[in-house]
Here is the input.
Amino acid sequence: MAIILEVRDLKTRFYTVDGVVHAVNGVSFDLAKGETLAIVGESGSGKSVSVMSLLRLIPMPPGRIESGQALFYGSDGPKDLLRLSQKELRDIRGGAIGFVFQDPATSLNPILTVGEQIIEIITRHLHLSRHEARERALQLLASVGIPDPEVRLGCYPFQLSGGMRQRVMIAIAIACNPQIVIADEPTTALDVTVQAQIVELFKRLRQELG
Ligand SMILES: Nc1ncnc2c1ncn2[C@@H]1O[C@H](COP(=O)(O)OP(=O)(O)O)[C@@H](O)[C@H]1O
Ligand SMILES: [Mg+2]
Here is the structure.
């Protein structure tokens, strides 16, 4: 299987007033195309900081990526995510790499409708007109199991249930045909039956999208 992401010796620390937190101590892993990789560990063991470091979404300072390499084998050759410019990073985030975090309440913008948020990300990364982006947004909402996509497009996040908000986050994560989707405990904030539905959704999307 072709490797799509190769992480080597990732070390991230936080320099706080109370001392240095060794959050990630030399993590290495490979991710192959089409593969699902789960990072397992107790609370506080550095799972979130590991994946946030890859997208450079940790607050710096106090955080600092001390060493490591994260080679992403995207469509235009291997690139070290830890050494990209801010512009390259913005292009990759939500584009070639989609992500879903634990709490959809804080990941979605409360003052924009679902439609505005999905259409914004689609027009930013794909070269589509607004009309085409809207059509794609409707298809995406349907594909993540949101009933009445036309209606939901005009809703604000607070008008949706937690499970529906997380489906919207997944729609945004896959909106631009990403090569990798990073999901950090995407079901923790949801109740058990909805958790199972979201896990099933991820499985189905992986089969459909590879
Ligand atoms: N902004 C921050 N400032 C200081 N320490 C942090 C910060 N973010 C995370 N940490 C610390 O990094 C460690 C790893 O956290 P995290 O990756 O969130 O764990 P988890 O495996 O539960 O996702 C923890 O000790 C946490 O307290
Ligand atoms: Mg975490």
Notes: DSSP finds eight helices and six strands in the chain. The longest helix spans residues 192-209. The chain has two domains: 1-84, 94-210.
